[in-house]
Structure formats: structure tokens, C-alpha cells
């Protein structure tokens, strides 16, 4: 469900519940908050959002005979001072006395409610962390990224890692997956890898995470300094030493003459 309501407004929505079992089943009707794991999948729990108090079932309990179905109503009542933006909830139908910790389990069904309180949409992404963790097997750089949605709408995300040499000239880039849409007031921690084996040598590299986010195509970047491979400098150092020795001999010979 996607519902848009102004602050101070109310609306009724309906769900149809069907008992696929042969015996009578008793169900509780619940309203749950929603959050995401790092992969972007939803997790539904009680006590996650103030919006859970804005939605309530018409009745908290129903009983259905085998093969029967029933339409149940949920009343949405938005307080006058509600902050504009998107709020994500789960409308749950659960067998009584069933103990579960997630969705997709037998005896519990959750319908996602995308509740938009009318007002100005603000798309704000923040990169809280961007740092190199280690160099993994196969010459891969491993980076840790921390993202946070500071706005009031969910954010589609697209990302790219860009590597610049010591002069900040781009010498490599790679598309990275930043997960599904990031919900408001949600953080996400990611591990991102970049294969640096084929990069030309540089005394240091500027490694940037460039994020494209939102429906208006905004951009945000963070940069981290990575030191180059020390052995990559050896050939150049040897050449400089040899040239220096040759120049020294030429100068000495010149004065001897």
C-alpha cells in the first residue's frame, strides 16, 4: 500500500485475510515498524517508529474457519504536527501465540504500508564513513562505507569507486552496488572492493566513493588517501641512481681533462 495524507487527516485502508488451513485459526492484527538490514531487506519489529501509533486495526483479533476469508480495516490518523515525509510500516496478520522474529514465516504475513505525510520532500544522503580496511587476496582493496539517509524520503542509490593518481587524475573506476532504496532515518554499512592490480604505479592514490542518490539525481563523494606499493618505486629509483652515477663520472672526467 502507498497512501498520502496531509497532517491532521485520516483514512481507512483494508486487507483481505484468508485461512488456507482446514481448521479454524485465530489471528492477531498488528502494526509494526520497519527497518532495513545491510542488504536493504525489510525487518519488521514493534517500537521502531512513532508512526506505529498513527495506524490501528479496527479489531485486534479475528477468527476464521478453514478456507474462509475476511476483510479487515486499519484506520490511519495523522497528528496535526506530523513531520512531512515517508514512513514505512508493516500491517501484520499473525496466528495467536506464534513466536516469530521476522517475516516470511508460516503463520505470519506482513503487508508493507508506505505512508507519506504530505509536505516538502527532502533528499539528504550523508557518508559517515569511508576508509580502507585491508588489501584482500588477489590484490583487492577492501573499503568500509557508512551511509545515512538524513532526509524524509527513501533514496535510490547508485555508486562508483574512482581511483586517481597522485595528481588526482582518474586512472581507474568501478561500479559498486550500494543496496536497495535507503529508508529515511536509516544507516547502512557496506564492504566494497576494488581490484587495484592493473593500476599504473603512483606514490599514492586518491580513492573516492561517488554516490548518485534520490529521484533528482544528486551526487555526493568521499575520498581516502591510499599509499602506493613501495616496490613500484624501485625501478624508477634505480634509473635515477644510474643516471646520477653516469653524470658524476662525466663531470669527474671533464675536470681531469
List keywords for this structure.
51% strand; 1 helix; mainly beta; 9% helix; 6-stranded mixed β-sheet
Write the layout of secondary structure elements.
Elements: E1 2-5, E2 10-18, E3 25-36, E4 42-45, E5 55-57, E6 61-64, E7 69-77, E8 85-95, E9 108-117, E10 125-136, E11 140-149, E12 157-164, E13 170-176, E14 187-195, E15 204-213, E16 218-227, H1 234-256
Parallel strand pairs: 1-9
Antiparallel strand pairs: 2-7, 3-4, 3-6, 3-8, 5-7, 8-9, 10-11, 11-14, 12-13, 12-15, 15-16
Written overview of the protein:
- The chain is mostly beta strands.
- It contains one helix and 16 strands.
- The strands form four sheets. Strands 1, 3, 4, 6, 8 and 9 form a six-stranded mixed sheet that branches.
- Strand 10 and strand 11 (140-149) form a beta hairpin.
- It is elongated and about 105 Å long.
- Mean pLDDT is 86; it is low at 101-106.
What would the principal axes of the Cα set say about the shape? Answer: elongated
> What is the arithmetic mean of pLDDT?
86
Q: N- to C-terminal separation?
A: 94 Å
- Specify the biggest β-sheet: 6 strands, mixed
Pairing-aware structural class of the strands and helices? mainly beta
Q: Count the beta strands.
A: 16
Percent range for β-strand residues: over 45%
Total helical segments: 1
Report the uncertain regions: 101-106
Helix content: under 10%
- Global Rg: 29 Å
Described by its quaternary structure, the protein is single chain
Output the helix-strand order: EEEEEEEEEEEEEEEEH
Summarize the structure.
With 257 residues, this protein is mainly beta. Helix content is 9%, strand content 51%. Residues 101-106 have low confidence and may be disordered.
Amino acid at each position: 500500500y502507498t497512501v498520502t495524507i496531509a497532517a491532521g487527516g485520516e483514512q481507512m485502508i483494508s486487507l483481505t485475510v484468508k485461512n488456507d488451513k482446514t481448521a479454524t485459526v485465530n489471528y492477531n492484527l498488528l502494526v509494526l515498524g520497519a527497518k532495513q538490514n545491510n542488504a536493504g531487506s525489510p525487518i519488521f519489529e514493534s517500537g521502531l517508529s512513532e508512526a506505529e501509533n498513527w495506524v490501528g486495526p479496527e479489531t485486534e483479533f479475528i477468527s476464521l474457519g478453514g478456507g474462509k476469508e475476511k476483510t479487515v480495516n486499519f484506520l490511519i490518523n495523522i497528528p496535526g504536527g506530523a513531520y512531512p515525509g515517508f514512513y514505512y510500516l508493516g500491517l501484520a496478520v499473525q496466528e495467536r501465540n506464534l513466536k516469530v522474529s521476522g517475516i516470511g514465516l508460516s503463520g505470519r504475513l506482513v503487508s508493507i504500508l508506505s505512508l507519506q505525510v504530505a509536505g516538502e520532500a527532502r533528499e539528504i544522503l550523508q557518508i559517515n564513513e569511508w576508509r580502507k580496511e585491508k588489501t584482500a587476496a588477489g590484490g583487492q582493496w577492501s573499503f568500509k562505507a557508512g551511509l545515512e539517509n538524513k532526509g524524509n524520503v527513501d533514496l535510490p542509490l547508485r555508486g562508483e569507486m574512482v581511483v586517481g593518481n597522485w595528481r588526482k587524475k582518474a586512472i581507474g573506476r568501478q561500479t559498486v552496488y550500494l543496496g536497495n532504496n535507503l529508508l529515511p532515518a536509516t544507516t547502512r554499512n557496506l564492504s566494497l572492493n576494488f581490484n587495484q592490480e592493473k593500476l599504473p604505479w603512483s606514490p599514492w592514490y586518491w580513492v573516492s566513493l561517488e554516490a548518485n542518490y534520490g529521484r533528482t539525481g544528486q551526487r555526493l563523494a568521499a575520498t581516502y588517501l591510499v599509499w602506493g606499493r613501495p616496490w613500484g618505486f624501485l625501478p624508477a629509483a634505480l634509473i635515477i641512481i644510474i643516471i646520477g652515477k653516469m653524470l658524476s663520472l662525466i663531470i669527474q672526467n671533464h675536470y681531469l681533462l
